[in-house]
Amino acid sequence: MNTKAGTSAIFKFKWFALVMLLLALAPFFLSDFRLNLFGKFLTFAIIALGIDLIWGYAGILSLGHGVYFGLGGYCMGAYLKLQAEELPDFMGWSGLTELPRFWKPFHHSWFALPMTIILPVLFALLIGFPTFRARIKGVYFSILTQALALVFVTLFIGQQPYTGGTNGITNLQSIFGFSLAEPATMRGLYEVTVLMLGMAYLLCHWLTHTQVGKVLVAIRDGENRLRFLGYNPTLFKVLVFAISAGLAGLAGALFVPQVGIISPSMMGILPSVEMAIWVAVGGRGTLGGAVIGAVFVNAAKSYFSENFPELWLYFLGALFIGFVLFFPGGIMGFLQKRRLRWGNVLLRWRGKMLSRPSSNGLASKHH
Amino acid sequence: MGIETLLSQIFNGLSLSSVLLLVGLGLSITFGIMGVINFAHGEFLMVGAYVVYVLQTLFNKFYGPGASGVSFLISIPLSFFVTALLGFLLEKVLIRFLYGRPYESILATWGCSLVLQQMARNIFGANNVDVASPGWLRGGIQMMPDLELPYNRLFILALTTLCVMGIFLYLYRTAQGRRMRAVMQNRDMSSCLGIRTRKVDTYTFALGSGLAGVAGCAVSLLGSIGPSTGQNYIIDAFMVVVLGGTGRLAGTIAGALVMGVLNPVFELISTSSMGKVILFILVILFLQGKPQGLFSLKTRALD
Fold it and tell me: What's the fold here for domain B3-126+145-289?
C-alpha cells in the first residue's frame, strides 16, 4: 500500500505540475476579458480548497465563509483605497472629515497585506474556539455560521461611514502603482492568483496527508471514538477552521484588485452557501474536486448571466438538488466511478482481473 | 427614551416572536423527527403570504374592495392547506431521500428555496406587493398616551396562541400526535411496534409546512410581501431552533420569545445593526453553558 501511495503521489504531482503550467499559460490563449473572469474563478477555487478542508475532510459545514472572504477583501480594499485617496470618498459622503483610527494602518502594505489573512484567521479563532469547545456541531454549527454571515452583512451595511455601507469599497484604481484598467496588470494579478492557488493546493495536500489530515477525517467519521482515544477534537477543528478562513481571506485579497470592488453582497448568506455548493459539485474530500467545482459552477454562472439571466437561479437550484440527489460524490466522485468501470473493462480485456482484485490497485494504476 | 417606547417595542417584538414561533415550530419538528433541515421553510411562509394576496385580489375583483375582511379570514386555512400540500409534495419528491443527512438536506432545500423565490419573482414580479389589512383589524387599543396596541398585532398573537394550542392538543391528545412523538424519540422502536414511520414523516412535514403558511398570513399583516419575504425570517427562525433546542414545544416557544423580543429591544438601545451583533454574541455565550439549547430531549445517546 505504501509503495503504491508513493507512486501515486508522484503521479499526482505530475498532474499538478501540468495543470499549473496550463493555468500559467492561459493568458496566451484567453482574451483579456475571459482571463479576468477566469482569474476571479481561480480566487474562488482557493476558497473552495479551504471549505473542502473543513467540510470534505473534517465534516464540518460552514455556511459563513463569505465573512472571511469579505474580511480579506475589505482589508485589501481599504489598502487600495488609501493608495488612491487620503480620505475615502464614502467617508466624505457620510460626513467624516478625518480617517478613523483603525483605518490608518491600512496605509502601509506591510500591515494591510498580511492582515488580509491574519484578520480572518483571528476572527475564525474567536468564533471557532467557543463554539467547538461547547461541542456545538453538525447543523447547529452551520446555522450559527450562517447567522454570523447575516450579522456581518447587517453590520457592514449599517456602519456606512466606516465600511462604505451597501456599496462597499468601490472605484479602486491601482495596485502598487499599476493601473487596474491596464490588461498587463490584470495578467500579472492572474499569474499571482495561479501561484497562490498552487501554494494553497500544496498546503492543503500536505495537511491532508499528514497525521493532522488523518485526525480530521477521524473527526468526520467518528468524533466520539477519537475523543475516547485521547485526542481533543476541539483543537483540530479550531485549527482547520482557522486555516480555511485564512484561505478565504487570501482569496478575498486576490479577488478585490481583479474586480475593483468589494461590497457586503459578496459576503452575505447566498454567496456563502454558493461556496459550499462549489465543493459539493466538485466532490467533497478531493482537493482537485474543490477547484474543479468552483471553476465549473462559476463558469456556468457567468454563462447563464450573460445569456439567460432569468434562468440562473433555476439552474443554481437544480444544481443544488441534482448533485445532492444524483451525484453525492460530485464531479470527482463521478469521474472516479467511471474510471474504475473503464479500468475494469480494460483489465478484463487484458485478462488481468485476477492479478489485481483490489479497487485501490485499480485506482492508482489508472490515475 | 420613555417607558412607552420600550413597551411598544416589546409588544412589537411579541408579534415578531409569534411569526418566528410558527416558523420555528415547523423547523424544530421536522429536524427533531427526520434530521432534515428545511431551508425552503421561509419560502413556505412566502407562499402563505402570497395566498393572502391572491385571494384578496380575487375577492376585490369579484365582490368589490369591501370583501378583504372576509377574504383574509378564508385565506388563513387556505394558506395552511396550500403550504401543507406543497410540503407534502416536497417531502414525497425530495425530502424523503435526505433523511438523516442534514448537510445534504441544507443544500437541496436551499436549492428549492432559490427556485421558489425565482418563481415568485416571475409570477408576481420582483417588487413587493401590499396586502390591505382587513377593516376590522385597523386601529388599536390606546393603553397609554404614547402606547397603542394595534389590533393586527393583537390578532397575530391570538392566531399564534390558537395554533400552538392546536399543536399541543394534536401532539399530546391524539393518536397521530402520539405516534409522532414516538417516532421522534425512537424511530426504530416505533417502527418495530407497528407505526408506519414514513407516513408519520410525511404528515409531520406537511403539518410544519402548513404552520409556515399560517405565519405567512401573519406576516402579510405586518408589511408588504415580496419574493424575499421568507429570507427575512428564516435565519432568525433557525436561531430560535438552536436556542430553544429541538423536539420540545416549550423550547421553541422560549426561543421564539427571546429572539423576537430581544431583537427589537437591542435595536432600540443601540443601532439596528449593532442590535443584531449583540444578540448574536449573547446566543454564542449562552450556548457555552447550554449547547443543547434551552430545552432538549433527555437521551442517553452521546450525540
Answer: ABC transporter involved in vitamin B12 uptake, BtuC (1.10.3470)
